[in-house]
From TrEMBL:
Protein name: Regulatory protein, tetR family
DNA-binding region residue numbers: 30-49
Domain of life from the UniProt record: Bacteria
Phylogenetic placement of the source organism: Bacteria, Pseudomonadati, Bacteroidota, Cytophagia, Cytophagales
Alphabetical list of Pfam families matching this protein: TetR_N
UniProt-listed Gene3D superfamilies: Homeodomain-like (1.10.10.60), Tetracycline Repressor, domain 2 (1.10.357.10)
C-alpha cells in the first residue's frame, strides 16, 4: 500500500470518528460504528488506530493543531497589531472555536483532565492512552498554546497596550482558566432560576469586561454592547 493511499484511509477514518464522537460521545461510540460508517473492516481500522482511545487522541491532536493555527493567525502581520489587539482576536477566536467545533474542544478539555492524572496518579491513566503515539505528541505540543498567549501578553506589556505590572505567564494561565470555565458554564446560564438576573448575552459582556480589565486595568473600562432580550 502506498503512502498516499494510507494517508487517505487514515483521514477517512478520522473524519468518521469526528462525526461519530460529536454525535454520540466517546463512551457510546465504538470502533464497530467507525467501521460501518467508513465501510472499512474493523480489523483494518485497528491497523491504523490501535484502540478507540488512540483514535480519540488522534482527533484531539487535530483539534490542538487547529486551535494552535487559530492562535497563530491572531498575531496577523509583524507589528500590525498591539498585544491587546492580538489577545482580543485570540479570545474571540477561542470562544468561536469552542462553540463551532465542540467535539475538538471537548476532546482538548478531556486531555487536560488526563494530564492532571498523569502528573499526580499516573497509574490511574489507561495504558491504552499511554501507549498511543498521539498522547506523546500531545504531551510535546500542548504547551504551544500557552507560549503563544504568553507571547501576546508580553508584546502588549512592551508596546504599552497591556498594563506593565502583569507577569505574562501568570496572567495568561489565569485568563486561560477563565476562558475554559466560561465555555463550560455557558450552557447552564439559561437554566438558572428566575431570581438570578442574567442571560447569555449579559454574561458574555460581563465576562469580557473582567477579562480585559485584567489586561488593561480598571482605569480603561471595557465598553460592552447593549443587552437586549429577556433576562432569565
Amino acid at each position: 500500500m502506498g503512502v498516499y493511499e494510507r494517508q487517505q484511509r487514515e483521514k477517512k477514518i478520522l473524519e468518521a470518528a469526528i462525526q461519530l464522537f460529536g454525535e454520540k460521545g466517546l463512551h457510546v461510540s465504538t470502533m464497530a460504528d467507525v467501521a460501518r460508517k467508513t465501510r472499512i473492516s474493523k480489523g483494518l481500522i485497528y491497523f491504523y488506530y490501535k484502540s478507540k482511545e488512540d483514535l480519540y487522541l488522534a482527533l484531539t491532536k487535530k483539534g490542538m493543531d487547529e486551535l494552535k493555527e487559530l492562535f497563530n493567525k491572531s498575531f496577523g502581520k509583524p507589528k500590525e497589531k498591539t498585544g491587546l489587539e492580538i489577545m482580543t482576536t485570540l479570545v474571540e477566536g477561542y470562544l468561536s472555536f469552542a462553540r463551532e467545533k465542540a467535539v475538538f474542544h471537548d476532546a482538548l478539555l478531556d486531555f487536560l483532565s488526563v494530564l492532571d492524572s498523569y502528573q499526580v496518579q499516573r497509574e490511574k491513566v489507561s495504558p491504552l492512552i499511554l501507549e498511543s503515539p498521539y498522547f506523546t505528541k500531545l504531551l510535546q505540543s500542548h504547551h504551544d498554546l500557552a507560549k503563544l498567549g504568553i507571547k501576546a501578553i508580553s508584546m502588549g506589556i512592551q508596546d504599552g497596550s497591556i498594563r506593565p505590572d502583569l507577569h505574562a505567564e501568570s496572567a495568561f494561565y489565569t485568563l486561560w482558566s477563565m476562558m475554559i470555565g466560561y465555555t463550560k458554564v455557558t450552557g447552564s446560564v439559561s437554566l438558572e432560576p428566575g431570581d438570578i438576573k442574567i442571560n447569555a448575552e449579559s454574561w458574555k459582556n460581563g465576562f469580557l469586561k473582567l477579562f480585559f480589565e485584567i489586561l488593561k486595568g480598571s482605569n480603561t473600562p471595557f465598553k460592552s454592547q447593549p443587552v437586549q432580550g429577556k433576562l432569565f
